[in-house]
# Entry
Amino acid sequence: MTTASIRLDETLVQKAAIMGKALNRTTPKQIEHWAKIGEIMEDNPDLPYAFVRQAIIAKAEKEAGKLEEYTFG
# Structure
């Protein structure tokens, strides 16, 4: 992955630092998380935030190999 330096509003960076610390993320990772959610929400404006959040969690679980087969009935 490549990185790029960008200028961000100091207030945004401070909020990201606080939230990142609370959620065990670095400040850049918190900003990436917010950007990911924003992108998904803009691409899918009819989806509620809770659904988007669960979809992100489900994807992470799949990538970690933590899914279980579901049997109907």
Notes: Residues 10-64 form one domain. The chain has one domain: 10-64. The CA atoms of residues 56 and 66 lie 14 Å apart.
